[in-house]
Amino acid sequence: MNGKKVINLVAADMGYGHQRAAYPLLDLGGNEIITINNYPGIPDWERDYWVKSLKSYERISRLKRIPLLGDAVFAIMDAFQKIQPFYPYRDLSKPTTQQKYFYTFIKKGLGRDLVEKLSPTGLPFVTTFFVAAYVAEYHNYPGDVYCIICDTDASRAWAPLEPKNSRIKFLVPSAKVKERFLMYGVAADNIIITGFPLPKENIGVHQEIAAHDLSRRLCALDPSGTYRDSYRKLWEKIVPGFATAERLPVTLTFAVGGAGAQKEIGVLAVKKLSGLVEQGRIKINLVAGSRSEVNDYFTDALKSFGTLVSQGVKIIFAPDKTEYFKKFNECLHETDILWTKPSELSFYSALGLPIIMSEPVGSQEDFNREWLLAMGSGIDSPNPVNVAEWLPDLIESGRLARAAADGFINAEKMGIYKIEKIFGKK
User: Fold this and answer.
1) What is the DSSP letter of 95?
2) Structural domains of the chain ordered from first start
3) Residues 6+ apart with CB under 8 A from 48
4) Best label site of 98, 203, 230, 368, fewest CB within 10 Å?
C-alpha cells in the first residue's frame, strides 16, 4: 500500500476494532495510521492517561471470566457505554456520564498536541475512535472531521456532546445506525451510510475475490451437496464459475479479542477436534493477533499435542498490528468458518464467512450478535466441550453453508470503496 496521502487517518491502539476498521483506508492515509494514544511526541501525561485507561479495560475484560465477581465488575463498566434499546423511537440526545468524563480531560488539553501537529496539513481528519473526533472538533481542527462507526450499533458516546451544533460527519454501516444517530440529535446531513470498511484484498472491485472464496467455501461446508443442489441456479448467477467439486479439509479459524479474552476456548477446540485434525478432515487457525502472551499460550499448548495435530494447526501472529491484519486477511481466503466474539469481525460475514459466536463481551457485542442472527450469518456457539460433535453436525447439515451464503447476500461488502469515493478516489 503506497497511496498518496489524502486524509489524516486516526485510530486508537485499544484492542483491534479501531485499527482494524482503519487498516483498509491505509492507501488514503499515505500508509500511515496515527494512533491517538501512542504517536511520536505524545505528551507524557497523555500517554500515561491512555495506558491507565487501557489497562483498566483489559483487566476488567479478563475479570469477566470469574463467576459472579467478574460479571458484577464488568456490568458496572459496561453500564457507562450501554446501548439503549432501539425502540421506541425517541430523543436520546442527552449527554452521558462517559462523554462528560472524556470532555473533562479534553478541556484540560487531551488531544490538543495531536490536533496542533496535524492542523497544518488541512487534510480531512478521519477517525475510527469517537474520542479522537471529539478532540478534533473541540480543539478546532481546520479541516473536515469524519468518524467511522465500528459496530452494527453505537452508544450515545459516539455522537458529540452537543450534536446539533457539531460539524463531525459520521460514516455509518447501515440505515438503522443512521436512525440511531438521528435519535442522538446528529443532523441528517452529517450522517452518511457507507457500510463498514472491509479489506479490499478480500473483496475485489467487482466482488470477484469474495465470490471466488465463497464458491470454494460452499463446497467445503456442504459436503453432501444438499444446500448447493437446492440453490444451484441462484448461485450460478451470483457467483460466476460456481464450483461443484467437494473440498476437504474444512478450515476453522478461531480469533481471540484484543484483550486476549477467550483464548482458552481456542486450545479447548484443538484438543476436542484433535481426532478430526489427525484424520485430515479439519485444519485450525488460532489467531493470536499482535499479543505475544497469547502467541506463547497457543505455542506452549500445541507442544502438548501430537505431531499430526500440530501440523494441522497454524498460529496467526505478528507483533505489529498492521502486519497482523495483513496476515489475518490472507488466512481468510482459506478460512471456511470463523469462530470469534461478535466484535467488529461481525461485518466480515459479508465476505461469505459463517460466524460461530462466542459469548459477547459488552453492550456493543450484544447488538452485533443480534445483527448477525438477523442476517442469518451468525450461530451461537454451543458448549465448546462438545465441539467434536456439534461442528461436524453443522457441516453435514449444510447449516454453515447457508450461513455463509446469507452473509454474502445480506450484508454490505463495498463500504471501503464508498468511503474512498468520498475522498476523491475513483
Assistant:
1) P
2) 8-193 (no CATH), 201-410 (3.40.50.2000)
3) none
4) 230
